[in-house]
Amino acid sequence: MFRRLQKKYWPHMYCEMKSARKLEISERESVQQKIAELSPWFHNFQIADGVWTNPEGGPGPQYPDSRWKVVEPLMPDLTGKTVLDVGCSSGFFSLKLKELGASFVLGVDDGEQPKAIEQARFAAETLRLEVDFKVLSVYRLAELQTQFDLVLFMGVLYHLRHPLLALEALRSVCRGTLILQTITTPHKQRFRELDAADLQHSSLHSPLLEDPRYPAVRFVEGALDKDVTCWFVPNPQAVMSMLRSCGFKPGQISYSGRNDIIVRCSI
Questions:
Q1: pTM for this entry
Q2: Using CA atoms, how far apart are residues 163 and 209, in angstroms rounded to an integer?
């Protein structure tokens, strides 16, 4: 109860990290100054005892804490496992996965947020978590020349001009589990798919093309909610079909709202 009241009146207390240390006054001031120098931050999370990265900025103090609460139950046992976080931004999910016991974590981002990798490296150093970060596009994942037990792909798919190419790149580096999150067209946190046979033998003149269960994608020309980096919005069925077409086996599904889907896949 006390914890809930704290978060109500001190909203920056979201996204707590087990590794957050208590700092001496001089080090605390230095960390806060560096956070300001590296702003703006997209993720708001605890970087030291009583210090958060983005308590006042967008998309809000509760993000990515709200997303993490949905994703964490989907995580396999990470003890001794290798993890790749694609589109890591300032590193919150990468750092959380290291706290869960992963032996090696690599976060990559392609530079859309100019200071993201620098932010992530600073956060890892401050939290004393051994996590690697580098600038790398999802399309170039093969350059890593290795595979990972878990690949995390959160909030990236709909920003890509070539989504299937990206999913194929993810499949090439995944040897265990993929957890993917993307926005979708509105749903009621459940959906039905067509029979596999119907999807395998579509016809241009079939009424199935107008069936709401048929995989479909809305193309975005211009901006989506003032965001010019979004290219398409799939329905949930399209997400599942795209994953299957690239060699993944969709399994457990979760949602954090009516316009997104989170899918845990095996190979």
A1: 0.93
A2: 21
Read off the pLDDT of residues 84-115 as tens digits, 9 standing for 90 and up: 999 999 999 999 999 999 999 999 999 778 89
C-alpha to C-alpha distance for 79 and 77, rounded to whole angstroms: 6
Domain segments of the chain as ranges: 2-52, 65-266
Nearest-CA neighbor of 218 among 233, 202, 238? 233
How would you classify the pairing of strands 132-135 and 51-52?
unpaired
Q: Which two tokens stand for residue 161?
A: 């001009």
Instruction: For the chain, give the number of residues.
Output: 267
For the chain, how long is the longest CA-to-CA vector? Answer: 71
Q: What is the pLDDT of residue 61?
A: 86
Cβ count within 10 A of residue 6: 11
CB count within 10 Å of CB 3 equals 9
Structure tokens at 191: 């959906």
CATH 3.40.50.10140: does it fit domain 65-266?
Answer: no
Enter the tokens of residue 186: 């509105």
Res 223: pLDDT? 96
